[in-house]
Amino acid sequence: MTNRSRDLQLDWLRAFVAAVDGGSLSAACRVVHRSPAALSMQIKKLEQAAAVPLLLRDARRFALTPAGERLLPKAREVLLAHAAAQSALETVPVTGHVRFGFPEDYAAAHLGPALRRFAQTHPEVEVEMVCAQSTVLIPALTSGDLDVALVTQDRPSRGTRLFDEAYVWVGLASSPVWQRDPLPLAVFEPGSMARKMPEQALRRAGRRYRIAYQSPSTVGLLAVVQSGLAVAAVKRSSCPPELVQLDARHGLPPLSRLQVAAVIASSARKDAAAQALHDHVVDELRRG
Questions:
Q1: Which label site among 46, 98, 168, 257 has the fewest CB atoms less than 10 Å from its CB?
Q2: Final residue in a domain of this structure, among 66, 88, 110
Q3: pLDDT digits over 114-125, tens only?
Q4: How many Å apart are CA 247 and CA 238, to the nearest integer?
Q5: 63 and 27 in a common domain
Q6: How far is residue 62's CA from residue 54's CA, in Å, rounded to a whole number?
Q7: Host domain of residue 226
Q8: Per-residue pLDDT at 2
């Protein structure tokens, strides 16, 4: 094979890294803004050029082959160097310090790859990250203590909508506390949309309930549910396999989706670094 035939194009490497970081084809497509067919073709071309399989695929996930494990760090280096070269050509490189807030649930599910790419394309911007609930982040934006945040929308005009988050009722199969009246409920902190929404659903359905536990942490809610003491409404993506998802068959009403938005503080709108981070988060995470 000639050296030219082994050229590894940037788009192919970008698709490969996105597939690894996203863990699935659908997640990778959102990152590189390609259709599933186009993304699969780019990965196929990369494997043809490498003359060896790089990814193992099943119905839902990607896994690295030994060759893929060797290529991954080198692919990251190439993409980082390319991003740095692009940044060096900017007439006025963006510099500064940005305070960025987000709830803990969104950090692992959505932000890791996006923040890594921002660091690659904006190496002179220092990002200070704050992990807190939306009930804390929104007042911090208003007061100017944060510049940009990822929050659950409390009104349609709050920020730029990125995607909707599906919520489900969860319980422990061996402890059917959903049969009790009133229903023991584990909820988020007062004022949280993730608390208001399930309580409103229960009231509309005429289902009596009592607050058995409250916490700003999803981990705390799930711990109580796993102990068999209550049911809770959590993001579908947060539901661990040992819990069951509950619905009308268990006497529980359907839950609404909540909207996630990127918000830039009014005090930061003229700050180039804050605007760059806000625009990057919107580009990376917006769906539909």
A1: 257
A2: 88
A3: 898 899 888 899
A4: 17
A5: yes
A6: 10
A7: 167-256
A8: 45
Average pLDDT of the segment spanning 97-114: 85
- CA-angle at 231, arms to 228 and 236, nearest 5°: 115
Residues 6+ apart with CB under 8 A from 250: 169, 171, 176, 178, 179
CA–CA gap between residue 107 and residue 244 (Å, rounded): 24
The Cα 286–Cα 288 span in angstroms is 7
pLDDT digits (tens, 9 = 90+) for 181-220: 999 999 999 999 999 999 999 999 999 999 999 999 999 9
**Domain shared by 223 and 276, yes or no:** no
Per the structure, the count of domains in the chain is: 3
The 3-class SS string of 139-203 reads HHHHHCCCCEEEEECCCCCCCEEEEEECEEEEECCCCCHHHCCCEEEEECCCCCHHHHHHHHHHH
* Domain of residue 154, CATH code: 3.40.190.10
Residues 201 and 269 in one domain: no
Q: Is residue 231 located within the same domain as residue 246?
A: yes
Which positions ≥6 away from 47 have C-beta within 8 Å? 53, 54, 55
Cβ–Cβ < 8 Å for 184, 177: yes
Is the whole-model pTM more than 0.85? Answer: no
CA distance linking residue 217 with residue 132, whole number of Å: 9
User: Under 8 Å CB-to-CB from 89, ≥6 apart: which residues?
Assistant: none
- 269 and 155 in a single domain? The answer is yes
